[in-house]
Structures are given as structure tokens and as C-alpha cells.
Amino acid sequence: MATLTLQDIKKSFGATAVLHGVDLDVQDGEMIVIVGASGCGKSTLLRIVAGLETETSGEVLIAGQSMKGLEPADRDVAMVFQNYALYPHMSVFQNMAYGLKIRRMPKDEIVRRVDQAAALLGIGHLLQRKPRELSGGQRQRVAMGRAIVREPKLFLFDEPLSNLDAKLRVELRAEIRRLQRRLGVTSLFVTHDQVEAMTLGDRLVVMNAGRAAQIATPMEIWERPADTYVAGFIGSPSMNLLHATLEAGGGAAILDAGGLRLPFADGPRAGAAGRKLTIGVRPEHLRLGEGGLGVMVELVEPLGGESVLHGKLADGTPLTARLPGARYGDGPMQLMLPPELLHVFDGETGKRIEAGG
Amino acid sequence: MAASDRPHENAVDIGILADRTRRRQRREKIVTHICLLVGILIFVFPIYLTLIGSTHDVNTIGRGDVPLLPGAEALHNYTQAWAAGGGRYMGVPAATMLTNSLIMALCVAVGKIAISLTSAYAVVFFRFPLRMVFFWLIFITLMLPVEVRIIPTIQVMVDMGLTNSMAGLVIPLIASATATLLFRQFFLTIPDEYVEAAKIDGAGPIRFFIDVVLPLSRTNIAALFVILFIYGWNQYLWPLLIVSDRSLETVVVGLTKMIGTGDQQNEWNVIMATAVFALLPPVAVVVFMQRWFVKGLTETEK
User: Which member of B197, B203, B215 has the closest CB to residue A85?
Assistant: First the structure.
């Protein structure tokens, strides 16, 4: 158990810069999920913490100690890999015990720890099997067991659930969360799945092109995304982003498509009239109502209790809405944008603009 | 009415069809077995002749007869071949030659595997300057078989004073580009995650080699061992050139030396018996290691 601090981590492979300076402070026992599209540098960041890659500049501190020049084995971290990386010729017991054996731990202590971890994960009856005789979920449990027996300062998860089917993923997700809380080990969890990110993390790091776009709790990120990238990435279906301009006085935005006036409920935004804005509205916040936005619905996906509607605005901008019920058809429709649930971003930088800011 | 007829008609049709299928399958089986039998005859007949020849006295074959039934001299022939040898130069007993061949083939196979395992490990798992240069150097030697470099190799062996020694027989044959390449290809299929997991577990390169790479390679090692043992056993040119001391003679060289070209009559019975002795170790290796092959094939790992 320990804190983890990343100070301005930069990494380039040859001429390609992958990380442009990431700062992060992780509290003792906290679960941080690093989420982002593929190629955003999230795995590289994890591997730098593990010591499998060397940072080009910046510093990693675990429990306040600099990890500069330390081998992965000397960092006291344990890692769970996407494809489990269980040694195929060793039994489950040998796999879990291998790291301890190398550290020359006494035999009875190894047995005690492995038994304890196996009981915790419900894999006690599998200890003598080979990895190939296990199902995907069982393998993932063994991989976690291998990390747990080490009793490390830090757990590192590199997309551990992406090779599992949907049902198992949900099950193991909850299990990982319970285990992590119970053991209280500081953890970094890398994933590209935003649902995993929202449900697992105490805090999220949303990565975009080698930068941390936002570091905050899941609900903060959902309610107040820092920029249009985060806004579009978190939430499903993703947030609608509409071009607009600022009205004189800053009290409302005028949509480019159809000229609809959207007053700001929480106060005026700074800037000259005509400032380019991007207005974000989540599909589930749109409501049916006269005098709203004119949408031509092209596709309806009924999900039972609700429906997802895909349509286009007058100027061709796509729009998605999630509405309760299942009785919708194609064709023109009027949708209201609730003023208190609008997100306002700068049209050029994509950064969030708060009221008065 | 029509509907009630149909099931009946169908039953008849199906009976005929099933019958036809059965006959076709039997015909196919017969053809297959004839093909196999012809193949077996072609392969087995020379070996059968050798076996039969080794059971007659020297004059039966000497007369030009080709006996197809076993004779009564088996024990005598095999004892003479094992203990005394025969042929034009008389002298080297099969026991000595077989021991020499066995030591040589084992050393060549084990040495080749050890050298190529370690060099492939270095080329795949370590980053060092000129890594690819070394790899290509090994690769190019594939184009140079033993025969091409035989003259300089003999010179080197003479300078090192290794002629007429087991070391001289074995060492030049140990370097193996083929085995290195095979192991390299296999090592490349070992996922990076194993290496990384081992790093985090705290296993250094030697631990990783012994604990992970070697166990994963064991079926490849078994397969290569069979091939390389037979390669070493069948060496002819190199042992012929480097060894003149007859106590170091290998069985393949010894056999050819037993066959005279001049006016002296060949002791075919003893030669055949020696040939049978020479056959046994490679056959034993193949038969014994075959179980490993099957094991390796059925329990696919990774």
C-alpha cells in the first residue's frame, strides 16, 4: 500500500512523442482508471510505472521514493495482463508461487499466501490444474491471484477484462472492485471501455493524444467534462456536439443549424458576440416538445424501456437522442434542449466554458 | 394415397443407397491398403534382404544366390561382427564402431541444440549492438554446407592438433544455423507478456531461460534431437577425413571400408550383420522420441 506520484512524464519512441507530460497524484488505496482510445498512450503510461518502459523525462514516485533506474522486480508492483500471461507449463499453484519462489520466500509461507489468495478468489480447487484447462474467467482470476500473493505496493491492470465475454466482464469487474477495496491496495487500471472506467474508478484519468485531458471522479467527468473530447468519450451514446455562436451579452447561444436560441440557465458566458461555441447535450437529456430543435429521424433503435433515435438537423449535423418508451417512427420531430443540462465549450479550443468565465 | 406410398419408396431408396455407400467405402479401403502394401514392400524389401543375408554363411551370397529364407548362421555372423569385425581390412569390431558413432551422434545433437538454443535466445530476447548483423551472419552460414568448408576446417583441426580425436570429430559439426533459425522462429512466438511477467516476478534472464523458455521448447528440442542425432550418425565425409586411427572409426565409415573393390571376396554375411547393428540406434531414437512428438502435438501449449 502506497501513494503514487507521476511528475511530468514524457515518453517518445524515436521521433514520435507518445506522452506529452502527465502529472498524477494517487492517494493510498485509491483505484485510478486510465481510460482513452487506443493509441492515446495509456498503456505506455502504465508500463512506465511498472518499469517495463523507461520514461524519456519526468519521474515516477512510489510511496514517495523515486523509481529512477529501478528494475520492475525492485519496484514492488504486480501487474495483471490482458492475455493473463500465465506460464502454460506451470500449474496454477506454480504460477502464483513463481514470484515468491524467486524472492526466496520460505515454502510454508508461499503455500499459506497462495492458499489464502486462492480462497479469496474462489480458485482453491483449481490449484493443480494447468492454465489451458481453465476458462477465460478462471485464468483471469489466477492472474489476479498471482498479483495478490505478492502483496505489492501497487496493482497495475492492463485491460484485464477485454478478452472476456460481456457477462463475465461485468461479473469480474465487480469482483475486482470488491477485492481492491478489501485489500486496500493502490491500483492503476487501464481500459478503453468507458463503462468499466465509470464503474471501477475512484477517479478517472481520461487520456487524449498523450495528455491527461481530465482527472476527476467519474461523476464529475460526466457532469462537467473538461473539453469536447472528454464529453464525447464518456457517456453512451456519446454527447451531441452542436456548433453555435454567442449572443451579444453572453446570455445565450444561437445554434448554427436552424438558428435556435439556447439561453444559459447558469449565467452568461464571457466573450464578444459571435464567439464560436460548441454546445454539448447528452442524448438522454433531449425531450420531445414543440418549439424545439427540428430533427429528421432516420433510424430508431428500440431497447425495450427506451429508444435511441438517430437523426439529422437541417444542415446535416447528426444528432442522437435517447427517449423513454418504444413508440417512435422515422420522420420529422421536435426536440427540446433543457437549458440547465447544456454544456458550453469553446468552438476553437474545445475547452469547457463556465458561467462568467 | 400418394402420401402413404412415399415413405415406403423412400425406405427402399435409402436401403439401396446405404448398400452402395458401404460397397464404395470397402472399395476405397482395398485400394488404400494396396497402395500402402506396395509402399511397404519397396521400403522393407532391402532391409529384409539385409536381415536374411546376415543369417547365411559367407559362401551362399558369394555364389551369387539371393536367399529369401533365413539361414542358420545368424549367431555366428552377429558374434563375429560384434566382437571381431570383418571385410577387407579385417579388424574393427562393430562394438567399437557403434560406440564411436553413438558418442559422436549424441555429442553433435546435444552440442548443436545447446549452442543454437543459447544463440537464438540471445538474438531474440536481448537488445545489443549489431544484433541483426550477428543474426544475418548465422543465417548466411546456412548457404555453406560442411563439404564447402571442409578444406579450411581440416587445416584448422590440424593446427589445433585435434585430428584423430573425438573432439575433432564433433566440434566442427556443432555449429548449426538451421537449428538456430528454428529456435529463433519458435522464440518469436513466445508472447512478450511472458517476458514482462517474468520481469515483474523478478526472474532474471537466466531464470527466465531455465524456468520458462526451456520447458516451452521441449517438444521442439525433442524433434530437433531426432533429426540431429540421425544427421550426426550418418556423417560420412568428415569422419573419413579427420580420423585415420581405426579405433575411432564410426560405423558408417567402417561399413564402406568393409566392402572391398578388389579381387578379395566380400564377407557379405558379416557386412550385413554390421549393417543391421548400424540401423538399430537411429531406429531406437525415432521410436523412443516418437512418443514425445505425439505428446508434444496433442498437448498444444501457449
Answer: B197
